[in-house]
Amino acid sequence: MDLRLLDLLVCPLCKGPLTLRRDEALRPHELVCAADRLAFPIRDGIPAMLESEARALEQDEDAA
C-alpha cells in the first residue's frame, strides 16, 4: 500500500483520521479509526473501506 494514500484516506463513517496497523511481518494489515473503534482490512494492498467489511475493536484492544 502506498503510504501517501494513507494521508488522503479518512474513515468512511466519521471522516476522521485513520491509523495504519502492521502485522507481525510488518506488512500493512488494517486501517483503524479510533473514534468509531473500527478496523478496516487491507487486502492485497487495497484497503476495504466499507462499513460491512470493518471489524469492531475489542474493549481491551488499543485503537491507536
From TrEMBL:
- Give the superkingdom in one word: Bacteria
Task: Give a GO cellular-component term.
Answer: cytosol
Q: Which SUPFAM superfamilies match?
A: Trm112p-like
Entry-linked Gene3D superfamilies = 2.20.25.10
The cross-references to InterPro entries, in alphabetical order and at most eight, read:
Trm112-like
Its family remark reads: Belongs to the UPF0434 family.
Q: What is this protein called?
A: UPF0434 protein G3A44_05140
Instruction: Supply the source organism for this entry.
Output: Ideonella livida
Supply the source organism's classification.
Bacteria, Pseudomonadati, Pseudomonadota, Betaproteobacteria, Burkholderiales
